[in-house]
């Protein structure tokens, strides 16, 4: 014969079920470790001796991270920039969403290298270190392409 559940036991069972269901729907991708991959890095051959730009894409297959700075042996002054409404604006950092991408592309987000140690020529490779809030540092070799290089066509 079945015995009726007491009020306290029924409340405890309902609470346990609610907690179990809440756990099933939680999204902990933001708290998981970021898994970053940097691709498509390039620098158009600079037309001036003092300034250059850089582009790349960061793909993240893990939790959130933030690009906080970039250092390079080409310049002691590498800054992060966005382009908003056609105007370039310096940024302190860029968020990289969980399971998302951060693109640095011509006409959009980009790196600015100022006070170059030398003017890199097409075919050279520029060493970068990307600094992330959670991942730490990632080293990148950025090839110097023609000044008119288009990554979509490869020319």
Low-confidence runs of at least 5 consecutive residues: 8-26
Give the tally of β-strands: 10
Strand percent estimate: over 45%
Termini gap: 81 Å
> Percent helix among the residues?
10-25%
Radius of gyration, taken over Cα atoms and rounded to an integer in Å? 24 Å
Helices, by number, come to 1
Overall geometry comes to globular
Element string (H = helix, E = strand): HEEEEEEEEEE
Going by helix content, strand content and strand pairing, the class is mainly beta
Largest sheet: 10 strands, mixed
On the 0-100 scale, what is the average pLDDT? 86
Question: Can you describe this structure?
Answer:
The chain is mainly beta. Helix content is 12%, strand content 45%. It contains one helix and ten strands; from the N terminus they run H-E-E-E-E-E-E-E-E-E-E. Strands 1, 2, 3, 4, 5, 6, 7, 8, 9 and 10 form a ten-stranded mixed β-sheet that branches. It is globular. Mean pLDDT is 86; it is low at 8-26.
